Amino acid sequence: MILSISPSLLNGTLQAPASKSYMQRACAAALISGGKTIIENFGISNDDNAALDIIEKLGANIKIVDGNLVIESNGVFPNVDEINCGESGLSFRMFTSIVALSKLPVIINGSGSLLERPMSFFDEVFPKLNIEVKTNKGKLPILIKGPIVPKTIWVDGSLSSQFLTGLLFAFSACKACDVSINVSNLTSKPYIDLTIDILNEFGMKVPQNNNYESFYFDSSILPNSHLIKHYKVEGDWSGSSFLLVAGAISGTAKVNGLNILSKQADTAILKALTDCGCELDIQPNEITVSNSGMLKPFNFDATECPDLFPPLVALAAYCEGKSIIKGVSRLTHKESNRALSLQEEFGKLGVIIKLNNDEMIIYGGGKIKGTILNSHHDHRIAMACAVVALKCENEIQIINAEVIDKSYPNFYEHLKSLNAKILIVN
User: Fold this and answer.
1) Could you give the CA distance from residue 387 to residue 381 in angstroms, rounded to a whole number?
2) Residue 13, strand partner residues
3) Closest Cα to residue 168, out of 299, 25, 60?
4) What is the pTM of this model?
5) How far apart are CA 112 and CA 342, in angstroms?
6) Are 115 and 139 in contact (CB under 8 A)?
7) Rounded distance, CA 361 to CA 351, Å?
8) Is the separation of the CB atoms in 198 and 275 below 8 Å?
């Protein structure tokens, strides 16, 4: 799909989309904690649907009742010999360890960019836990055969915290006793806080977090056991960051349903919005962002929240001067190499982006003329292109614009409800 977005003055109010980080973890917790779970405000993105498909194939029964998602489970009992994670990196990295709770052999597969992402973590770690594993030279598909035997292990957390999330779920499900997962170079620590938050919410065994260097499962600490759970998924800061930046660039956007005390890493977008000098009104369940007329350049460390790079680059394009975003090393193994994708597409608009070791330097404030941009089959690149179009001198067209379905299928509809001028070209 090719989408056309013309300069627009925004004005309106939206409800934040559901957090897929929480939604996918809630699906995993509902599967392995057992019993009946009711999930309110459930997500509808491709990644969310991938998680639901996986837990169904691993034995859960799923239905929708009165607008809520109802999941019933007796644990991990695969009813197929292969599961497909689509393009969801979190689902793959998390559910691979959960699959190992079963003694049945299961192939884990995926599609698109996920087929090229490095997965050697499992080759290195799983044999230490008595799990048979066979990968495709460190990539998908992967054959797993458990059951997992929790032991004290040492793992590298530099590539993604999602591998650790999967192990924490699996160890908790096994009711691991007096063992530790020791971690070096852990990235995206807020997402581990989020994982532990879900374990606690679902009454599962929660490890002691020792400064993110080790996670100890103490035999003397028992989980709170309950079978019927009612869980409401938080609003998503990752998707909503594009809406908030859109308001900062052109007009006003009000977003409801965001928890300012959330453990989601992308709450950090508020710092960048504050520093750039836009008009910002923060209420307990409502955030309003408006363009102030002149946006200032900002410095921002996105090492722990790399998903903020695309909206922040769109913001920096309209800030008068040199903005610097740290954490470029976190962008390589995404749906695209996001550092290069952003540099290429924004370069077509006349926005100069330089990459200096782990820093991205954006020279903003010049006139931006619309042109044809490519999403690189990356949902966040497509959304960044849409947001930067809102104050261009003329329209921007986005090729493969439909990739937003991966995380935020209603994104263009939501922008239109804020008065954005959006048309489907092809």
Assistant:
1) 10
2) 254
3) 25
4) 0.95
5) 19
6) yes
7) 11
8) no
pLDDT at 137: 82
Tell me: pLDDT of 224 over 70: no
Q: What angle do CA 190, 115, 309 make, to 5 degrees?
A: 40
CATH architecture of 2-17+235-424: Alpha-beta prism (3.65)
Instruction: Single out the residue of 409, 394, 353 nearest to residue 5, CA to CA.
Output: 394
Residue 66 is a catalytic residue:
no
Measured between its terminal Cα atoms, the distance across the chain in Å is: 6
Residue with tokens 């995926």: 110
List the strands of the sheet with 396-399, edge to edge: 372-374, 396-399, 2-6, 421-424
Considering 236, 307, 378, 405, which one is annotated as catalytic?
A: 307
pLDDT tens-digit readout, 161-214 = 999 999 999 999 998 999 999 999 999 999 999 999 999 999 999 999 999 999
* Residue ranges, CATH 3.65.10.10, the chain: 2-17+235-424, 20-228
Query: Contact, 286 vs 261, CB < 8 A?
Result: no
pLDDT tens-digit profile of 278-288?
999 999 889 99
Residue 133, token pair as written in the block: 């594993």
The fold of 20-228 is UDP-n-acetylglucosamine1-carboxyvinyl-transferase; Chain (3.65.10)
